Amino acid sequence: GAVVSQHPSWVICKSGTSVKIECRSLDFQATTMFWYRQFPKQSLMLMATSNEGSKATYEQGVEKDKFLINHASLTLSTLTVTSAHPEDSSFYICSARFGPSPDTQYFGPGTRLTVL
Amino acid sequence: QQQVKQSPQSLIVQKGGISIINCAYENTAFDYFPWYQQFPGKGPALLIAIRPDVSEKKEGRFTISFNKSAKQFSLHIMDSQPGDSATYFCAASYTGNQFYFGTGTSLTVIP
Questions:
Q1: Do B42 and A109 touch (CB under 8 A)?
Q2: N or C: at which end does chain A have fewer Cβ atoms within 10 angstroms?
Q3: Any B CB within 8 A of A35 CB
Q4: Cis peptide preceding A40, ω within 30 of 0
């Protein structure tokens, strides 16, 4: 199946700093990329949807200025958590889709963010 | 509001047994119902998916049963193995954009 990578796989940062997480589709061009957040033992919650070259669409309750999403190319999307706080500690998962059908969507391995 | 409700929260099955996980949804516009398997520290991986125009889909040991009138669907894992121990999420989608995930089921298969 298609491969989606995330970097880093885990990161620890101090409160108030910014952290960038990369999501790459390795063997296909992703028309759309999605960012999810998952708290321990909980479900995945969609944070935002991004299409290459256009602004991301954020879900209700997600702060645009705090979670900056850039979809610079058809194979790369980045999520920057600005001025991170301990409550931002979570598992962040991206997914990438290469076609109109939902079964063309593949998930990355996730990034564990811990804010001290 | 939880768009997709999943049960049970956890499940323990003997090796060789059948694991059954259930999901229910409200939005009749949903037209794609996947099941994902997630291991600790990893992203979810698509197991099997179904569209509402069929009542059952089988792939190897995994079967989805779909009841459109009841707005319910379930995952059956036949001949469960210890390697199947993971968290399983059902999901629902329309237009293929936003996926609404269930709350997850932690499956443990005892040798």
A1: yes
A2: N
A3: no
A4: no
- Asked whether the predicted pLDDT for residue B2 surpasses 80, the reply is no
Segment 19-48 of chain B within 8 Å of chain A by CB:
32, 34, 36, 41-46
Cα–Cα distance list, A38 to A51, A87, B40 (Å)? 22, 12, 12
pLDDT value at residue A51: 86
CATH number reported for the structural domain that contains residue B15 in this entry:
2.60.40.10
pLDDT digits (tens, 9 = 90+) for A77-103: 999 999 999 999 999 999 998 888 888
Q: Tokens 């001290």 correspond to what residue?
A: A116
Contacts of B1 in chain A (CB under 8 A): none
In the stretch 75-104 of chain B, residues with CB closer than 8 A to chain A read 89, 93, 96-99, 101-104
Q: Exposure pattern of A36-73 as b/e (b: 16+ CB <10 Å)?
A: bbbeeeebbbbbbbbbbeeebbbeeebeeeebbbebee
pLDDT, tens digit (0-9, with 9 covering 90-100), for B64-84: 999 999 999 999 999 999 999
For chain B, say whether A62 makes contact (Cβ under 8 Å): no
- Chain A environment of B44 (Cβ under 8 Å): 44, 93, 107
Q: What burial letters (b/e) apply to B2-35, b meaning 16+ CB within 10 Å?
A: eebebeeeebebeeeeebebbbbbeeeebebbbb
Number of domains observed in the structure of chain B: 1
d(CA A55, CA A24) in angstroms, rounded, equals: 18
